[in-house]
User: Fold this.
Amino acid sequence: MTSAPALEDLRRAATSGAPDALYALAKRLIADSEPEQAFAPVSTAAQAGHPGAQVELARMYLYGVGAPPDVAQSVEWLQRAERAAHPGASYLLALIALGGIAVERDLEATARRLLTAAKAGLVPAVRALAMHFGRDRTNVAAMRQSEALLAQGAAQHDGVCAALLAERVRHGELVGDVRYALDGLDRVARNAGIRSMPALPASPVVPGPDNRLQLDLEANLRAPTFVACSRAPRIAIVDGLLSTEDCRYIIAMGMPHLIRSRVADPHSDGWMQHPGRTSDDTAFDALLEDFHLRLLQLRMAGAIGMDFTCAEPMVMLHYGPGQEYFPHRDYLPPETLAANQPEAGQRAITLLCYLSEVEAGGQTIFPKPNSIVTPAAGRAVAFWNLDDNGRPDPDTLHAGLPVQSGEKWLATLWLRERRHRSF
Assistant:
């Protein structure tokens, strides 16, 4: 196996000014966690018309890595690279378009870009298409396509694709003639930090009459209607907001990044660990979000009449036996709000989506209306943190009861009063 070129060799080669050499140096510096040093060579290569450098420069502007965040600049460079037929540019433009801020939320154009990226083998696009075609469990042709895409991603050592395909094997959800080695799929998943998935209800394939392959992203946004269960405080609940495979997806995406949960420090603008919150969690910041996670959040927020650009990063939580979250409220203390995009306003709505069943315990309790919500995969509960006058409502006090046996997986979306995201 050929070893990677030494950094000094890449620096010497880059003195020629050749775009390929400048791009190679920039990629190495980024891999070595030196994005600030990478900015000059990648910018020069991009200006010279190197599509790969244009995409990398756009990524730096998009996420504020090695350069000040500038979404408009990012989109401009991505559009240049897309005109040069770079599939990575098409993927990122599709991802940005879901926000409808810097790129129009045109779902037909977004689907075409996603398909372009998937045909080029970009794993996040392959995953997104696999999830799209896997939504309709009555469409055998779509399920077969979804299965093939998951296998393609797993063959590229993507742990999420491997974990999802392994769950289909375990639960008898396959439709194709191919037989997959479960040990091999589990190995790929473990190497990516995805351990055993929680037991979720099987999602069997029931053949129906419609076997058309349609890339209709609008179908992913259709959601069941929330039903009010309390007026003061305002609480609503719905089943089936997320499918079983959506739940698996979020768990697989977040599991490798779990850390001990924290709470807002009431005496500062920071965050701290607290004995009253004993779960583990991960926040899907912009760098962790892929296309499908953004699409899911678009559906989740839309189901309660909000746009997901008002949402803070989605948080996935895991509770094991004995873990709990003491009674608390979700609206932010003044110090924390002042330090965290106060122009977006207070946390108007909390949306809790349960990702698993719990053998015993783990309910969410609201003392004021004396309401208890039992976790069930795909079930969601929304509550409004502000009263009718827009003031923080102390009656939104709630708690996560201790898990007595089994484990609890949960996704939380906090939606601000106004736009919180830049794209």
Notes: The chain is about 40% helix and 15% strand.
